[in-house]
Amino acid sequence: MNARSWGLGGTRRLPTVVLVARREIRMRLRSRVFVGGTIVMTALVVIGIVAASLLAGRTAPVRVGFSGGSQALQRTFTASAAALGANVTVSDITDVTAGEAQVTAGTLDVLVTGSETAPTAVAKAAIASNVESALSLAAEAARLADAGLSPAAVASAMALVPVQLLQPPNPKDTENLFASLALGILLWIALGQYGNMVAQGVVEEKATRIMEILLATIQPSRLLAGKVIGVGLVGLLQLTIVGAAALVAVHVTDVAAIPALGVASILGDISWFLLGFLFYATAYAAVASLVSRQEEVQSAVAPISIFQIAGYLLMYAALPDPSGPLATVCSLLPPFAPILMAVRMADTDVPFWQVGLAVALIVASIVGLTWLAGRIYSNAALRLGTRVRFMEAFRG
Amino acid sequence: MTGTSQRQLEIDGISKRYGQTVAVDTLTFEIRAGEVFGFVGRNGAGKTTTMRVVLGVLTPDAGAVRWLGVPLTYEARRHIGYMPEERGLYPKMRVAEQLTYLGELHGMTGAEARQASVHWVERFGLADRADAEVQALSLGNQQRIQLAAALVFGPDMLVLDEPFAGLDPVAVDVMSAVLREQADAGLPVIFSSHELELVERLCDRVGIIDHGTMLACGTVGELRAGGRERRWVAVPGAPGDWEAGVPGVRLIQTDGSRRLFELDPGVDDQALLQAALATGPVREFERVEPSLGELFRTVIGEAGA
Hints:
B: alpha/beta, 2 domains
């Protein structure tokens, strides 16, 4: 009946860390929580992207029909519209009544009637201001030409005032903001979810009392490492599934430019997820080992969760000014770096030294936390019943 | 392999205290290869602490545990079959899968572990539940799986904390047979229990522990020899205190004209017999072998006095 594969290495002795991680992965992948969670997360992300693309709206071209003498305006109108950033298509309308009917029916947005120098625009309810301006400019040019100006004189008379921007905005700014925010939220959810998964797993082993059998067989640090690695890989798989669905959705709806989410930035985000996960999972595992019942997990991890929530809130404070002092300083601090630095990197160009410093700080913190967590975990893992005090577990 | 004299697990002067409480106090005894050793004592006497020290789950404050003459290493401890007092298995893992996992954790290959897990599941009569989640099993069956978990990797020795607690009579028989068989295969087997009759029946040697010290240790026969002898004496029609003049004799119990006496160590029972004969015809003079339970109460009582 049980014909499923038991995995590779049937004839090899595997290191205990690998065995622990493999068990963790198998059990998680089999659980309804994982399967259901992945489906729900994927659905939410895809729905969010589709909704965003619908809200942003399609910048469909404004259809402008010209009838009679106004048809001569088409070329200058198209040029002016392009200069004013209006997306238009033009067509000839032979019958004014039929054109008005089209406007009423919504198959035509603007109908221009009248002569070249005195045109009239007909619209259903409103007309985009840049389309109206383009039309006015075209009519004005026609009047100037009519008054005897040469085409060159007309062109110079109609020239737009050049504008010089001292701080030109990144043309991808809004897209970046959208992508960064989505990335930040995704990272925040993922770090919280998988950190909690590790905490639950640690307490599960204490609550079900299997801890003693395990610790009679393998060293606490290896059990801890295997668990963190296993859950981390499961998390990475889930994120990859959700992320792939998100990329496909973005590509299909065209809501943001995919190149903005290039391979390098995806690798960067994965690295920040892994660093953040190692940081938080280790901390979660240590505090979770202090309690023996699932009901106590939430209160035990609360001191760590506060940092995560603070990081989430800081993201909103930092995004409007991703290179400001608040964003810069907080993105260097290990508890916030995984979210804030990832978001800043997606949103703007972060100086290399800042990224390097943030990575160095969080790696150092992870090393320290691993030592601390290993100590707490070893000392608290077999103390069942009442909650173990942190300092007690630290001293051993 | 070293000589048989070396094939023993030595607990050499281990001590462990928790804060002010002394759990184990310079405890010394040994468990020989091929014997079943029964570890008895009141709740909180130090049995679990001792077993945890043997397993390396606890670090003793002093003393050492040696196997084959050398201190137990981490690697050697991986070959001890252990059944902790606090039972524990992963509730959502399947029975065979769980045993396979534990086998691999103890250093078996995947194939070996699978084979061994099938063997032990069958041995405990749970072949039809091999693919059931552990949480779906009755408590008694979970206990069988717990013992299978201690055996699945072919241990070098067995350390079992209360393996019989909560078992039905059939399971007790299966468990007893398995322990005997493992000892006969050359393993040292130590288990703790409050079922003193069972301990007496099953164990080659017994250790009685109280307040962290070993009060008595040996075969049940040796414990009896060290303990006080008892005699039932029936002298109908004798006055109430006929034994008063015999030194080193204490009345334990009266049953009509029958009386149960306890003799201090070294006291000759013939003096008691002569005193009885002096009062009238002796209808009964019977040597009583104290049960382990009686020995236990005597030893604990003396230590407490």
